[in-house]
Amino acid sequence: MTERRRAGEEEVRAWAELVGAARRTVTDGLVVGTSGNVSVRVGETVLVTPSGVPYDRLTPDDVTGVDLTGRQVLGTLVPTSELPMHLAVYRTTGARAVVHTHAVHATAVSTLVDELPLIHYMAAALGGPVRVARYATYGTDELAGNMLRALDGRTGCLLQNHGTVTHGTTLDQAYDRTAQLEWMCRLWLTASSLPALSPSLLTPEQLAEVGERLRDYGQRG
């Protein structure tokens, strides 16, 4: 059996934030039950929600962590079955947090198109038009590979007949991107539902202009 260590102070704080975000996915209607998962990277350790445990039952003693190879180094609970997706993001990007949900509107859109139409300029906050990763069985390396192709140059994507994945430099940022993605999907489905009418869409040039403006968005310092 692999020897496991005690969580450090930074990992304890990160775990508390992770559990809070996981519970919020339920409250905000982005997942049902124990579906979806959340992870945070602290140094070379990835803290991740465990498999099949209701988020409201998680305690500080349930901290679950793996290294970048997937070897468990913290806790005794089995990590999420979607661990290959989370690790694939951390190995290939500078992400420090990943949020995966089964959000209803986003999942619905994933069954209809190969790319979310440019219904709103906030697509620029995800790096551009949001792609749909080809379907593969959950928890597989195949799904992780499909996800990485859809994420190329992006910070979020849809998983066909499955849900969403977003990442960020902070957990708050990753979560906000998930919420924005679900909102854009709901917007497109709503606008597309009226008979004999089609929603206006942005052009790539318009989206690129927004992308430039977003570079200076928010407070300085």
From TrEMBL:
Which is a GO BP term held by this UniProt record? pentose catabolic process
The organism's place on the tree of life at top rank: Bacteria
Q: Name one GO cellular component term.
A: cytosol
**In its keyword annotation, does this UniProt entry include Iron-sulfur?**
no
- The leader peptide range reads none
Q: Does the keyword Metal-binding apply?
A: yes
Q: Tell me where in this chain the Class II aldolase/adducin N-terminal domain is found.
A: 16-189
Molecular-function annotations in GO: aldehyde-lyase activity; metal ion binding
What's in the keyword line of the UniProt record? Answer: Lyase, Metal-binding
InterPro entries on file? Aldolase_class_II_sugar_metab, Aldolase_II/adducin_N, Aldolase_II/adducin_N_sf
Query: PANTHER family given for it?
Result: 3-OXO-TETRONATE 4-PHOSPHATE DECARBOXYLASE-RELATED, FUCULOSE PHOSPHATE ALDOLASE
User: What is the protein name given in its UniProt record?
Assistant: L-fuculose phosphate aldolase
The organism's taxonomy opens as: Bacteria, Bacillati, Actinomycetota, Actinomycetes, Kitasatosporales
